[in-house]
Design a protein that fits this description.
- The chain is of the alpha+beta class and about 100 residues long.
- Helix content is about 40%, strand content about 25%.
- It has helices at about 10-15, 30-35, 60-65, 85-100; strands at about 15-20, 25, 45-50, 70-80.
- β1 and β2 form a beta hairpin.
Amino acid sequence: MMSWAKVSEKDLCEKGEIPTDFGETLSWKYLCFVREDPITWNVPTEILYVGNDNLISRQTVDGFISSHNAHLTVMENGEHWFRTDEQLAFLDVWMKKAIG
């Protein structure tokens, strides 16, 4: 998100928080927390990813899956925010399968 907003680490550090044009606020405190406190993930996890995700790269998701107990389902023509009838129907079916 920092690269999308054209924000450097130096800028974020100096300002503390920077609002973006896409509705998220970047936070130096949060970035430091994430780097200093990596997660330990020991629970089975189902992830629904979409082929047209503009917030999270497939590389990031694949990295998470390879180092955690997670299973991936991909909706190739979906978007990060499920909003169309087709996307919501896919989400509904996926949730029912994931919950079991």
